[in-house]
Structure formats: structure tokens, C-alpha cells
Amino acid sequence: MTRPSLFLGLAAFAAAASVRAGELPAEIKQTGALKLTVNSTYAPMEYRDPKTNELVGLDIDLANELAKRLGVKIVWSETPFAELIPSLQTKRADFIISGISDRNSRRETADFIDYLTTGPQFFVLDGHEAMAAADLCGKKVGTTRSTSFPVEIEKWSKQNCEAAGKAAIQYVPGENSIDVRNQLKQGRIDAAVQGSETLPYAQQQEAGKYRVVGEPFAIGYQGIMFRKDDAALREVVTEHLAAMIADGSYKKILDKFGLGANAVAKPMMNAAPQ
User: Fold this and answer.
1) Cβ neighbours around 144 below 10 Å, total
2) pLDDT tens digit string along 82-92?
3) Alpha-carbon distances of 102 from 106, 173, 221, 269, 271, rounded to whole Å
4) Taking Cα atoms as reference points, which of 268, 269, 259 lies closest to residue 61?
5) How much is the CA Rg of the chain, to the nearest whole Å?
6) pLDDT > 60? residue 188
7) CB within 8 A of 180, min separation 6: which ones?
């Protein structure tokens, strides 16, 4: 699904573990801190622990380990998902690691270092009549409006519903994944779509509430998003991420959140096919 030319040089990554990594930009070195912002409604990627209210998640652990290796601290902030990209563009954030998908439409002003496989997946309340994805044709399906999922749902519907003479899926927008799940529980929608990396956590937190329908119907990657004119920061972060993959610390973090199967073999630049 990805072109070989889009992969960053594996040899360079392997060497990063034994050779001094590139330099941080002067401003970050001077302050000794990274400014990072997340949308904390996308468990298990980033969320507030319901018991402690602390900011936790896979992305939080990855970023903290990267910062440790870079020798800097992180100044965290939170923002709605739709404000993540503007936060990067206005330099309120040095880079974005917040469950954000690598997409062609986002690469005009930014580059992605892809670090996790993902894909949209249908789910329903347990007990719903739908047993296969095709059973959702003509039904109301909700997902977060600011993600790539509305487009993926429309594409899937055209190929699998309308092409078969069935009614199209009726897309219903939501503000975030929590809002979408609430709409599902309130009966306002028949089914919902979230990234495959989030559903095991949702099923664990609300046991017996949700049932996945079918496999992910598209393949993509989540990436760390950098401004295109910030190549130095992108390169040094990528070197350390490659070293984390090589020494097993990356896999340990993914396994902690039950997402070892979503691991990538190496960081990839702008590799998603969408």
C-alpha cells in the first residue's frame, strides 16, 4: 500500500542507535522544553485517567520517552481535535502526536512520521441486528467530523452499498469519539466508526456494551506531524523513534495499551496511501 520511495532510509535509522543524534533546534535547546498539545478524548492514545485525572495514553508515553532521550521536558496543553493542526501552524505546538492520521490533504504544510497502523472500523451496541458491515447500508452511522473517517465511510458506502443497489449509509457527524459513542448509546445512530486502535479500550471500559462489525475497511497510519520548515526537529525525533523501535522500548509501550499488533517495523515519512 506504500511506495518504497516514501520510506526513510533504514540504514540511517539503524545508525542512529550508535551515532549521536542530530541537533535540536536552537529555541528548544535554549528553553529545554517541547510544547505539545493533545486532544484528550481519544483513549487509549491520549485521555484523562478517570481515577487520577492525569493525562495518560500511548502517545503520552511515547512523547515522554522521546523527550527523555532528547534531554528536554514537555509542556503539555489540551485542545479540541479540530484545533490540533492550527496549533502546529501557529507554533503553539512544536509537533503533534495526538492520534492524528497521515493524510494527503494534510501534507501541504506538514510532514508525517508514521508510527502506528490504524484503520476505520464499524461498531454497534451489543445486541444490534447487524452481523456484517453490509447490514449497515441505509443505516445512520456516526463518526468524528474532523477525521478522515467521513470520507472513508462515503467511499465504502459507494463501493459496498450503492454499487449493490442498496441504500447509502447516512453519515451523522460527532464532535469527538466520546460524543459519537454517546449518540450510539442514546439511539440517535445505528452504528459508529472509530479507529481500530481505540475500540479494544472502549470495549474494556464498558464491558458488554459494544460489538465490532467486520474488519477495518481502510488501512492507514497515525503520524507525528511536523511543519515542513522544521526538518531539523523532524529528523532528530525520527532518529530517536527509530532507536526506540530498535531497542524494544517502542513495542513495550504499545504492548502496555494492547496495541502491539499495530506496530510499524520502522518510522515512515508520509507513507499513508490516502
Assistant:
1) 25
2) 899 999 999 99
3) 7, 21, 6, 9, 8
4) 259
5) 19
6) yes
7) 142, 143, 144, 174, 189, 192, 193, 194
SS3 43: coil
What letter represents residue 133's amino acid? A
pLDDT by residue (tens digit) across 113-165? 999 999 999 999 999 999 999 999 999 999 999 888 999 999 999 999 999 99
CB 198 within 8 A of CB 43: yes
| pTM across the whole model | 0.80
Give yes or no for residue 110 having a pLDDT over 70: yes
pLDDT of 3 above 50: no
Q: What are phi and psi of 125, to 5 degrees?
A: -70, 140
- Check residue 15 and give its pLDDT: 38
Cell for 119?
484503520
pLDDT at residue 19 is higher than 50: no
Q: Which grid cell sits at 17?
A: 542507535
Nearest to 226, CA basis, from 264, 173, 270: 270
Cα-based torsion angle of the residue sequence 132, 136, 137, 138 in order, rounded to the nearest 10 degrees:
160
The Cα diameter of the chain in Å comes to 62
Q: Is the peptide bond before 86 cis (omega within 30 degrees of 0)?
A: no
Residue 213 Cα distances to 91, 133, 191, 194, 198, angstroms: 40, 6, 9, 12, 14
